[in-house]
Amino acid sequence: MDQPALARRLGLRQAVAIGLAAMIGAGVFAVFAPAAQAAGTGLVIGLAIAAFVAFANASSTAQLAARYPESGGAYRYGRERLGQWPGFFAGWSFVIGKTASCAAMAMTVAAYLVPAEWQRPVAIAAVVAIAAVDLRGITRTARVATVIVIGVLGVLALVVAAGATASFGGAADGASSGSSPLFGPTMLDHGWLGILQSAGLLFFAFAGYARVATLGEEVRDPARTIPRAIGIALGVAVLVYVGVGTASLAALGPDGLAASVAPLVDVVEAAGWQWAAPVVRLGAAVAALGALLALVAGIGRTALAMARDDELPRPLARVHPRFQVPHVAEIAVALVVIALIATVDLRGAIGFSSFGVLLYYFIANLAALTQPRAERRVPRALSAAGAIGCLVLVATLPPVSILAGVVVLAIGAAYRLISRAARRRRARLPRADGRA
């Protein structure tokens, strides 16, 4: 039976906006503090490592997306190039990692806007609102993402300017650490293990570029548009993160940054710009909403692709006849995220999300390595470097994140084995009845 297709409505500008909204989201407002805890000023090296691994992964993803312009991203690539099990693990890793990210980002929205007692209800309301936007269609999602990206980039420019002011002695209270150099021997004080752990945590903030690939069935001229959109979005994100990271270190110092709950708010306050703190808080909430918008869309389309192949329950493959979105999958994602917000403490969500997403990209790089010369757009060595980098960063994540990730992967594998066995039994029943 023919599968209902999604409509190709996205051009280059919309695809870049969705990728940027996924990357320049809650991560940039939160990830530098745990990275500083792990590596101190060495987080600058960690940022460079994370950016390189992201570049290698993006190159492999763009190469694969040009060949397989369908929904599902690395799930589809792994299935086509490596087999059903690698494809399943890629898709499952993406779904579990990014579902945790959705819950964390919804809670970030609430943490920046309301007191503690209101945070869970507001986070749930944010998920409901974002799911409603996504259900109205992908072009509406892209328009909202464009507005969000423009606003958040303006807020981050304000933070960078405040960090520069503070580092040159403009702080009202002397909070600046201008006497502590960003680049020098102190960058290695926490050792290479700390630097690599910071890279693994910082990778969480880069991971959104693949959202363009998961929307591959809805992009016009995908062989040309997807690689360009991924490259542009990643390049802009790297520049933004370098600016924000160095400004935060310059204004707060490594110890101050590591201890901060809202580091970018502290940066503007260190410059004496108290008037800007509410703007940054609002920007953080809007950025988290933008990332949540793109995440729900991406997870829904990966679930759609897996359900089409009977790797997830079949109803998740339904496409809305009017809005042409995988509405059942997106509603299911929203319900799971709401359940997580209501029941789970997600302070470790960054590490868990990084675990799932790094494995997702590991499989994407392996898939890219198998492509013939005629399909290659980047050197094979770059895909190999991306695969190795993913494994190294996974191994250096906090042990609790690794353990939780392994357990959830095992649950997914068990589900697949049981469901496949059940389908085989059902397939044999008609023949048995016919012989009776």
From TrEMBL:
It is found in: Cell membrane. The chain crosses the membrane at residues 12-36, 42-66, 87-112, 118-135, 147-171, 191-210, 230-252, 282-304, 325-344, 350-369, 381-396, 402-418. Keywords: Cell membrane, Membrane, Transmembrane, Transmembrane helix. One of its GO terms (molecular function) is transmembrane transporter activity. InterPro entries: AA/rel_permease1, APC_superfamily, TAT_signal. It is a multi-pass membrane protein. One of its GO terms (cellular component) is plasma membrane. This is Amino acid/polyamine/organocation transporter, APC superfamily. It comes from Agromyces cerinus subsp. cerinus.
